[in-house]
């Protein structure tokens, strides 16, 4: 059976949080969400504080941290495995692309610089990350010499990077794609490759081969910088930019609000009825911070902030829970 329904809940925040921003990142560890980076004005990093949002109490706090604290940045990614958060790449206040990998121990509140220079992926921003039990995967993004289509894995047990074979010309370099680890494969969904694209590919680490998938069903229009999450065999895509601004990153493109689910076994898309138009629905937006996680015992998607159709940065938080059969 296909996923046909889901539910959004708006989380009413308490306390002084990060405020409105886009091009930031968030990840969930246990019952807390951690937010880092981002911009209020285009291409101007706001700060490098690590904000903590309690998903039960709905309260914000700022972590008192030690160690190798990352400088401010936009277009950065965060992911968590166990109690540890991993922050990679982004773009600094001089618009330089970055490639440092940091870890943050949520038990000790200590930052550690794990890699930089030539020991891992090239400098980039607006890339995507996904995780399994032992690896953080990094794909694509905007590099020093253009958009990238390379896939890397960081092994969190032995702290080493591995580069996988390049996919070839069918999977063009892109920024703002979806990335998910599902069924032992790494999936690349849509993104911006000089234009919004709607292709789907997966990489099989066992065979080290790339495959382009022909999808059917209620297929989403081409888009990028959307929010996404993998739940079970499904990859959910929420919102995003469907038509870029003539001003590039300085302006707001045309954003959408729908949720779609891709069945990674049948390659069929379905539009998900998610209460569009209700007070609990996030509406059209892109360039959000988002993370998979659990709330009230159910897996889902946390979406925080982003950019609006009026080019205003947003500061609201929503949690989406799909209704799985």
From TrEMBL:
<dbReference type="GO" id="GO:0030234">
    <property type="term" value="F:enzyme regulator activity"/>
</dbReference>
<protein>
    <recommendedName>
        <fullName>Nitrile-specifier protein 5</fullName>
    </recommendedName>
</protein>
<keyword id="KW-0677">Repeat</keyword>
<dbReference type="Pfam" id="PF24681">
    <property type="entry name" value="Kelch_KLHDC2_KLHL20_DRC7"/>
</dbReference>
<dbReference type="GO" id="GO:0019760">
    <property type="term" value="P:glucosinolate metabolic process"/>
</dbReference>
<keyword id="KW-0408">Iron</keyword>
<keyword id="KW-0880">Kelch repeat</keyword>
<dbReference type="GO" id="GO:0005634">
    <property type="term" value="C:nucleus"/>
</dbReference>
<dbReference type="GO" id="GO:0005829">
    <property type="term" value="C:cytosol"/>
</dbReference>
<dbReference type="InterPro" id="IPR006652">
    <property type="entry name" value="Kelch_1"/>
</dbReference>
<dbReference type="GO" id="GO:0080028">
    <property type="term" value="P:nitrile biosynthetic process"/>
</dbReference>
<dbReference type="InterPro" id="IPR015915">
    <property type="entry name" value="Kelch-typ_b-propeller"/>
</dbReference>
């Amino acid at each position: 059976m296909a996923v046909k329904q889901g539910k959004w809940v708006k989380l009413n925040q308490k306390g002084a949080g990060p405020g409105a921003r886009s091009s930031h990142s968030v990840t969930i560890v246990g019952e807390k969400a951690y937010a880092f980076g981002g911009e209020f004005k285009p291409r101007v990093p706001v700060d490098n504080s690590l904000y903590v949002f309690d998903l039960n109490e709905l309260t914000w706090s700022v972590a008192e941290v030690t160690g190798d604290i990352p400088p401010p940045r936009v277009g950065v990614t965060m992911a968590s495995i166990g109690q540890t958060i991993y922050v990679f790449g982004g773009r600094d206040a001089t618009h330089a692309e970055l490639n440092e990998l940091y870890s943050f121990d949520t038990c000790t509140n200590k930052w550690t610089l794990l890699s930089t220079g030539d020991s891992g992926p090239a400098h980039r921003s607006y890339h995507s990350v996904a995780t399994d039990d032992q690896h953080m995967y990094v794909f694509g993004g905007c590099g020093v010499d253009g958009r990238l289509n390379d896939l890397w894995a960081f092994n969190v047990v032995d702290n080493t990077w591995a580069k996988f074979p390049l996919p070839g010309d069918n999977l063009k370099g892109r920024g703002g794609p979806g990335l998910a680890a599902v069924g032992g494969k790494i999936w690349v969904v849509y993104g911006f490759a000089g234009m919004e694209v709607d292709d789907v590919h997966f990489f099989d680490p066992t065979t080290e081969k790339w495959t382009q998938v022909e999808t059917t069903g209620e297929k989403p229009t081409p888009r990028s910088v959307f929010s996404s999450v993998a739940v079970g065999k499904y990859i959910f895509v929420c919102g995003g930019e469907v038509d870029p601004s003539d001003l590039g990153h300085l302006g707001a493109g045309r954003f959408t609000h729908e949720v779609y689910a891709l069945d990674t076994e049948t390659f069929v898309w379905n539009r998900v009825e998610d209460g569009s138009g209700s007070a609990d629905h996030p509406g059209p937006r892109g360039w959000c911070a988002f993370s998979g996680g659990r709330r009230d015992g159910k897996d889902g998607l946390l979406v925080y902030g982003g950019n609006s159709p009026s080019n205003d940065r947003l500061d609201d938080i929503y949690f989406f829970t799909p209704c799985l059969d």
